[in-house]
Amino acid sequence: MTVSLPLVLVLGAVAWIAIKFMGVRLWVAVLIALFGFWLAHTGIAPSVESGTRSGVDSVNDQHD
């Protein structure tokens, strides 16, 4: 059985768990999210996207 989840949903769940159970302050999570938006408008964004896709593909290939 294959379950497909958007990466943003998984990252959102991890952020919620970190805030709820690990004591991460909400302002830290917001700051990290804003940094991600800022990073998306720089020249390094294609490299970050490529690395993320490669990482997700390698995890998915291990389970096939």
Précis, in short:
This protein is mostly helical and 64 residues long. It is built from 3 helices and no strands. Helices cover 73% and strands 0% of the residues.
Description:
The structure is a single chain. By secondary structure, the chain is mainly alpha-helical. It has three helices and no strands. The longest helix is centred in the last third of the chain and has 18 residues. The radius of gyration is 14 Å and the shape is flat.
Total strands = 0
Q: In terms of per-residue confidence, which ranges show pLDDT below 50 for 5 or more consecutive residues?
A: none
Largest sheet, described in full? none
- Residues in helix, %: over 70%
Q: Can you count the helices?
A: 3
Give me the strand/helix succession: HHH
Distance between the termini: 11 Å
Q: Taking all residues together, what is the mean pLDDT?
A: 86
Itemize the secondary structure elements and their pairings:
Elements: H1 7-21, H2 26-39, H3 45-62
Observed structural traits:
64 residues, flat, 73% helix, 0% strand, mainly alpha
